[in-house]
Specification:
heterodimer, A: about 425 residues, alpha/beta, Aconitase, domain 3, 2 domains, five-stranded parallel sheet, B: about 170 residues, Aconitase, domain 4, seven-stranded mixed sheet, 8 helices
Chain lengths: ~425, ~170
């Protein structure tokens, strides 16, 4: 019997013939923490009697969740991170550098075939470039920083075969929201998902990140794609590291294989207050919107800003609405400035905030008021997620958010010409 | 490990934002302070209702969402002895065991709010005392029992300096 991508990567990294269900202790290629999880990991590192990290070149800390610091308490935690990073000589990304999940691939730290942990649930993002990456907590992060290893239960895999061609106005985000509705929030718990098929083949690497980013919203330990020509050239542009892509065997054993034809998919919306509460846009068009958000580790990439700018260029967002834009990294911000995308968005009425998590995690940068509706390109719409449990969050593609801002209500982007 | 206490019941898909909101968790590492806000968005008075040793009881997919370890730590620091649920999200599962919070996986439909419960991890049984019902537990994987028995992953590392499951 052959092996899935997850079984192959964990076999290589643990030096044993690992199959689903087995426990392995595996070598980590890269370890990351952000400002919501690193301060606790630093405390645990000391409690565990950690002296030096296993390899400073394989550890990064990123300040992205509350960047720049909105209150004194956060400032003190940020200071601890800066001091630890300096002392340990690890990679450190400060305010304005961007979201951790954009930075790790963009700065070339992670490449196909790697095994990566990050103390942030959306660490599964790098599966889009064939990396087994998964979110952990602060204690696992500390253990990983000390030993360069972590124990894993080798996950079973679900293979999702995505056939057809996405229609104009329908994007990777619509696809993964649709799949969240199909698989549900715990449908892939303890499992890996392999995304394959014609639809994936035609998507850019930026769009593939959007899909794998949300694998955890289906409960998955990681979401994986095979590397193709696009992946290889993207990775070579960003990283000097050598890499060996990992492919699933044809006779690999899957928990479930599901096929979808997505040619007739319409834009999708995740309704409040769970990601798997999914509706096609046609059923919710016209719902009032107070605030829009374009950005986050799901949809703050250059391609996303291009799509939004194309819809909003030369127009104004509706009265009584506001739009917050957070580019996913400094490099994306600069590129968007040079292309004139930021100019188009700001002229249309957007407020651009520091590259980072923006208002997604409820710490700053746009907490909604009681009773307000937010439409966001983020990955979570839990009650209270954006800092107010009496607000409602709708999740959608950058095109749908941009189109909805023009009317102040949920709008099908296919009705708006660029 | 044996535990006794009262059941506080919640539904399915209790995510880490509900357990401890992002409004608080980024600001401090004082877990006793965070514990005061446990489940606040679902029940503003929840913390005041807890007696030492009580249980949080829930449906499926408890702890879904973020990787914040503040979630199990806030539960521990609110003096909850264990969480009992039909199933747990993967990251929360690891974080809870790593920080020494026992998790009990079983069918929770029969448990009513306010029930007095006894849990025996060694016997693999949950006993609803008020109605004399017994529910079998899904056993924890051996690796996790080992970490829990050591008192969490910090103690495990202090003892061995790395992972040691032999």
């Amino acid at each position: 019997m052959g092996k899935t991508i997850a079984e192959k990567i964990l076999s290589m990294k643990s030096n044993q013939d690992a199959k689903a269900g087995e426990i392995v202790i595996a070598d980590l290629d890269f370890v990351m923490g952000q400002d919501g999880t690193s301060p606790l990991a630093i405390r645990v590192f000391k409690e565990m009697k950690g002296k030096r990290v296993f390899d400073p070149d394989r550890v990064a800390m990123v300040i992205d969740h509350s960047a720049p610091s909105p209150v004194e308490g956060v400032s003190a935690l940020h200071k601890q991170m800066r001091e630890f990073a300096q002392d340990q000589k690890i990679h450190f990304y400060d305010i304005g550098d961007g979201v951790c999940h954009q930075l790790l691939p963009e700065m070339g730290h992670v490449v196909p075939g790697h095994l990566v942990i990050g103390a942030d649930s959306h660490t599964c993002t790098y599966g889009a470039i064939n990396v087994f990456s998964t979110g952990v907590g602060s204690t696992d992060l500390a253990a990983g920083m000390i030993s360069g290893k972590l124990w894993f239960k080798v996950p079973e895999s679900i293979r999702l075969v995505l056939n057809g061609k996405l229609a104009t106005g329908v994007y990777a985000k619509d696809l993964i929201i649709f799949l969240a509705g199909e698989i549900t929030a715990d449908g892939a718990t303890y499992k890996a998902i392999e995304f394959v098929g014609e639809v994936i083949d035609t998507l850019s690497v930026d769009a593939r990140f959007t899909i794998c980013n949300m694998a955890v919203e289906l409960g998955a330990k990681c979401g994986l794609m095979e590397a193709d020509q696009k992946t290889e050239s993207w990775v070579k542009q960003h990283s000097p590291l050598n890499f060996q892509p990992v492919f699933a065997d044809h006779d690999a054993d899957y928990a479930v294989i599901r096929e979808y034809d997505l040619s007739n998919l319409e834009p999708q919306i995740a309704l409040p207050h769970t990601v798997d509460n999914v509706s096609p846009i046609s059923k919710v068009v016209g719902t009032n919107i107070d605030q829009g958000v374009i950005g986050t580790c799901t949809n703050g990439r250059l391609e996303d800003l291009r799509i939004a700018a194309e819809i909003l260029k030369g127009k104004k967002i509706a009265a009584n609405t506001r739009l917050i834009v957070a580019p996913a990294s400094r490099a994306i911000f600069i590129a968007a400035v040079r292309e004139g995308l930021i100019e188009a968005l700001v002229e249309a009425g957007a407020a651009v905030v520091t590259p980072g998590c923006g208002p997604c995690v409820g710490t700053h940068n746009g907490v909604p008021a009681d009773g307000e509706n937010v439409i966001s390109t983020a990955n979570r719409n839990f009650k209270g997620r954006m800092g107010n449990n009496k607000a409602s969050i709708f999740l959608a593609s950058p095109a749908t958010v941009a189109a909805s801002m023009l009317r102040g209500s949920i709008t099908d982007p296919r009705e708006i010409t660029g | 490990m044996e535990f006794k206490g009262k059941a506080h019941k919640f539904g399915d898909d209790i995510n880490t934002d509900y357990i401890i909101s992002g409004r608080y968790k980024f600001k401090t590492l004082d877990m006793r302070e965070l514990a005061r806000h446990l489940m606040e968005d679902l029940d503003p008075d929840f913390y005041a209702k807890i007696n030492k040793g009580d249980f949080i009881v829930a449906g499926k997919n408890f702890g879904c969402g973020s990787s914040r370890e503040q979630a199990p730590l806030a539960i521990i620091n609110a003096d909850i002895s264990a969480v009992i649920a039909k199933s747990f999200a993967g990251i929360f599962y690891r974080n809870a065991i790593n920080t020494g919070l026992p998790l009990v996986e079983c069918d929770t439909d029969l448990i009513e709010p306010g029930d007095q419960l006894e849990v025996s991890l060694s016997e693999g049984l949950l006993h609803i005392r008020s109605r004399d019902l017994q529910i079998p537990l899904t056993p924890l994987p051996a690796v996790m029992l080992k970490i829990l028995a050591d008192g969490g992953l910090v103690e495990h590392f202090k003892k061995y300096g790395t992972f040691n499951f032999d």
